[in-house]
Amino acid sequence: xxxxxxxxxxxxxxxxxxxxxxxxxxxxxxxxxxxxxxxxxxxxxxxxxxxxxxxxxxxxxxxxxxxxxxxxxxxxxxxxxxxxxxxxxxxxxxxxxxxxxxxxxxxxxxxxxxxxxxxxxxxxxxxxxxxxxxxxxxxxxxxxxxxxxxxxxxxxxxxxxxxxxxxxxxxxxxxxxxx
Length: 179
Known about the structure:
By secondary structure, the chain is an all-beta fold. The protein has one helix at residues 155-159, and strands at 2-6, 11-16, 21-27, 41-46, 52-57, 65-70, 77-83, 90-96, 99-104, 109-114, 121-126, 138-144, 147-152, 169-173. The chain has one domain: Neuraminidase (6 Propeller), CATH 2.120.10. It is built from 1 helix and 14 strands. The longest helix has 5 residues, at 155-159. The mean pLDDT is 85.
């Protein structure tokens, strides 16, 4: 199964390759864009225990809001309270060793969050620059074989109507920088 967020509408779709189907799985105002924002639900990740789908709700000029959706009951949506709140635009996300890593587009870094209460709340552990200097345009992170990778796609230029400047690059995130 794959879960796909719809940034302009308050929906998450579920695609099932075996059944060759795509269906609206969750539809809730909590996933809607806020105010003049053009992004509602954006980044999406399935918790490692498969109990929840976490969606980053990106609002222009506002801190990102994370939404937890129960996989067994997509009507069970909860806004995750993060302490402290973090700024920037949350984009692609992934889980690694129980922690949630989020590409923070405008800030040019990666946030690491941890929850001890089934993702009702989350603690922002640290938000270091990645790599050594801030790289605005990081758009997603992915875990593979125990490592974390981020892609610099120059998305900030795309969002502001400017031409992105290749080459884009994928780099390994130093997990030690979060300690």
